[in-house]
Structures are given as C-alpha cells and as structure tokens.
Amino acid sequence: MALFLLGRRGFHRVMTAIRPSSVASGKKPVNGVDLYYEQTGRGKHAVLLLPGALGNFCIFYNSKLCYCFDTTYFLKKKSFIWQTLGFGKFSLLGWSDGGITALVAAARNPDMINKMVVWGANAFVSQQDLKLYNGVRDVSKWSARMRQPMEEVYGVQVFAKLWEAWVDGMAQFVHRPEGSICMEHLPLISCPTLIIHGEKDPMVPNLHPEYLLKHIKGSRLHLMPEGKHNLHLRYADEFNTLVEDFLEE
C-alpha cells in the first residue's frame, strides 16, 4: 500500500514490479507550496520515500503507507512533512541523493525515525567520485532510455543544464574537509539502518557503503553482486523483499 507526496515540479514515476491497484490523489498546501500526493491503502507504519538526483524518480514500494516528495525541498524544510501528514514517526527509504537526505534527516530527527534504508548513497565526495560524475556530465552521451524520464519532466535542454549544475554542485564538496557531505551526521544516527548496495554501481564505488556501515552504529549492509545504481528497479522483487523483511522485524 503506498501514498506518494510530490514536490512542486512533480515527479516521473518509475514502476517496479509492485503497482498499487487503487490510488487516490490530491494536493496539500505546505508552506505556500501545493504538494501533489497519491494514496492507496491504510496503515499505521508510515514510510517516507526519498528519490534521487533532481527529485524526479519515485519508487513504488509494497508497504503499509508510503510518502514521496522532492528531497531538495525536504532539506530546506526538514520538519514540515511530519506536521502536515500528521504522523509522529516514519521509516525512511532513500535512494542516491535521497539516501543522503535520509541520513541527514535521521541524524537531525532521531525521535521521529523508526527505521531507515539507504542505497546508492554516499557521505562524502572523493576525487574518484568526481571523475565518475564528470564522466556522465554530458547527458547526450546517455542512452535514450536513461534520458527519457527526466527529459519528459524538464525538457531536453533544461534537463541537460540542470544535470550539469548537479555535477558542478557535487564537485564543490571536494573542497570541504575530507570531501564531506554529511560525514559528521553519521555518528548521530540511532535508528536501525539497512544499507543496500549494488556491487556494479557505476556512480557509487563500494568504499561508500563500507564507510556508512562503519560509522552508523548498529547498521547492516546487504550487497547485490549484479546490482547497479537502479537496483530497486532491475531487481524489484528482491529489493522489496529485503526492505519489507527489515521493516517488519
């Protein structure tokens, strides 16, 4: 059962194997912004889904109640979502940049987070990472299948400029001590945390999940040997089973 709460730009929905059969939608005014949402089913265990870069990829997840919205807006208004939705506690699922957002949120709001799952996330940017980012700067070199979802949301030219700006933004972290994005937040995370990582992820080297495992107390790491950056899409059944089992423990 899932409910997705979306940001101002809206999101391109990427389906996994699980698709809710009955969906209700609407808008909620939050801090002067109308946030679109979709809802299906009922449940007391709320799960907040945080999408990846540019905030336009959502994940259907088979849980009791799920929300998804723009991660950039979430960082600026870190507490608005809890108050608006009326739930005292959430579990967090964060992919890529959304995983970074989840790490920060869990550290800043320890009393509000039940559990957390992150994948494709990193707490710092190294020279190795920067090389990988620059390697994908030119979106015209991407496959049409990879470009299409974002181009449908932003338009071809706007997406290309936004992606270049994202690469430039990530590059700025190299100038911080140890390239930290949120390294200082990791010791403050107290919720049970599952880190999932695709060992063939072309964007996030294996050193990152190992670092998260070492610095988040009580966390666990599950490696998917054939998984890449979008492992929740390509291996949706396995991914959903892992997450469901973890949240229900």
UniProtKB/TrEMBL annotation:
Signal peptide: none
GO molecular function, one term: serine hydrolase activity
Protein's UniProt name: Biphenyl hydrolase like
SUPFAM superfamilies, sorted: alpha/beta-Hydrolases
Pfam families: Abhydrolase_6 (PF12697)
Residues covered by the AB hydrolase-1 domain: 87-240
